Amino acid sequence: MSSNLTEIRTGSIVKVNGDPFLVTWNQFMRKDASKPVMRTKLKNLITGNALEKTFLAGESFEFADVERRKCQFLYKDQGQAHFMDNESYEQFELSTEDIEETLKFLKDDIEVYVTFYEEKPIGVQAPVKVTLKVTETVPGVKGDTAQGGSKPATVETGATLNVPLFIKEGENIIINTETSEYVSRDND
Q1: 20 to 30 Å CA-CA from 22: which of 71, 122, 124, 169?
Q2: Homologous superfamily, domain 129-185
């Protein structure tokens, strides 16, 4: 337990009603004779829901024990995504519904960071950039240039994004997983 408001900072993870919340914004306030308060905006690390909370001076709060571990994405089937801890070699599952946005950029055997809360996996962070093969896109037309427009393309994981007109089926492209955007061709 802790009661020092100044320990709450952006990036901290606090427990609220038993769930871990990431502090996405904070502001310390003190008005004349009133007690100081820390206004915060929080994001639930399990459900993704946002919450605004004001912590009062003297109010007890607790930091959540959250750990990030390097793991390997193995495969997905029947609504479950299967992972393996790279250190302990223990395997575990997460619901594909819970990690839907990240899962669209994960192919088998890719390394990811998994967030654990009280030894239970609660979230997955994909690498910032991944290389995926284009499996479906409309053909380019003569005269298409790198400065031209874009067209939709589907990659091997099933994700769809916009790519430049010169990209062809079968090419490997690099994707920024944070923005879901095309970065470049993979020339390897």
Answers
A1: 71
A2: Nucleic acid-binding proteins (2.40.50.140)
